[in-house]
Amino acid sequence: MNSRRNFLQKLAASVIAFPLLSPEAISSMEYADTKTDDGPPLRVAIMGLGSYGTRVAEAMKDCKRARLTGVVSGTPAKITNWQTKYNIPEKNCYSYETFDTIKDNPEIDVVYVTTPNGLHHDNVIRAAKAGKHVICEKPMALNAKEGQEMVDACKKANVKLLVGYRMHFEPKTLEIIRMRKDGELGKILFFQGLSGFTIGDPTQWRLNKALSGGGSMMDIGIYSINGARYMIGEEPIWVTAEETKTNPQKFKPGVDETIQFQLGFPSGAVASCLSTYNMNNLDRFFLNAEKGFAELQPATGYGPIKGRTNKGELTQPHITHQTVQMDEMAGIILDGKQPVVPVDGEEGVRDLKKIDAIYKSVSTGKRVELR
Ligand code: NAD
Prior knowledge:
This protein has helices spanning 3-17, 23-33, 51-60, 76-86, 117-129, 144-156, 171-181, 209-212, 216-232, 321-335, 345-364, and strands at 42-47, 66-72, 93-94, 110-113, 133-136, 161-163, 188-196, 238-244, 258-264, 270-276, 282-289, 293-296, 307-309, 312-313, 368-369. By secondary structure, the chain is α/β, with parallel strands linked by helices. Helix 1 (3-17) crosses helix 2 (23-33), helix 6 (144-156) runs antiparallel to helix 11 and helix 9 (216-232) packs across helix 11 (345-364). The longest helix is centred in the C-terminal third of the chain and has 20 residues, at 345-364. The radius of gyration is 21 Å and the shape is globular. Residues 48-53, 74, 114-117, 119, 137-138, 164, 166, 205, 211, 219 line the site of nicotinamide-adenine-dinucleotide. Nicotinamide-adenine-dinucleotide is lined by residues 48-53, 74, 114-117, 119, 137-138, 164, 166, 205, 211, 219.
């Protein structure tokens, strides 16, 4: 049964049972705590109420198990707006000054960090110290060292750390992974990953090295790195990379516009990828193997993802990625469910190690070994 409809029916009954409580108070109380059809709800506070945080909040409206119960923001007007829009009680709203008191709030299980990349490290560690599980957006941090510190802090605090890798739950992607695992494609030989868009406003944080950690590679190129790993099913052992910059005014030192990179895998498979902030609609994965092929285009956008293999079109249905992701993450956090492709902090660090190596290869002009 639809959990939200179920809840609304209960809400109507509560208003009759508790006439002195405002419907809003009952609503937030009940909605936060009522069991879902799949078990207890995952109660989520979003930190950083920007464009992606909003997308996650909207997607969670259709979740069976994950529920938005709190917010963390430095902008009071945004908090008020979100309170009205998502029915969030005052006691579950935090500024960055009051955030640490979230440790005393039993209505929040997990903090979902959707702030700019450069803030993930400190935000995640703060949430862990407050005893909350954490979901952190990609890229998990600015480099592997930071990422590892986050993993260690969450382990020490005995909380789970997940990275918002929504593609790890996408049905067409998972079908290709299944075919590869079941041997239907044979030996994997080659992967091509193309990830890019033309970035606008030159003043945005994505083009500010301190907040972004780099340029297109941190933001969009990471999809090709991550995709190469889950499509091929191995960890790369070497990297080579070359940078092209056509607009040094817009893309300052340390902010990459376009990087081409190659990855070598233990089986002998290779990947050839492009990450760019200077070409639109670049979102394509292609996997070549001895017995067949698989392609996805678009491969990582918000969907619908389109794809085909040597056997024909992929027809798995589209469901809003963040809705599936948040319900699956509820199972991972609350029930210890294991995803097909990991989404834990260690997985985030694996990608960051490749990004570190790519930047090193760009600056040295040499192949970087990853073993
Ligand atoms: P955004 O600029 O729209 O939102 C960032 C939010 O952080 C804003 O609300 C801003 O007010 C807040 N913030 C807090 N401290 C800030 C500071 N010091 N400077 C600037 N902003 C500050 O960005 P976004 O597109 O929502 O991206 C946020 C994160 O989500 C990034 O890490 C990004 O990589 C990730 N993201 C992931 C996906 C995905 O598909 N998984 C898609 C888009 C963005």
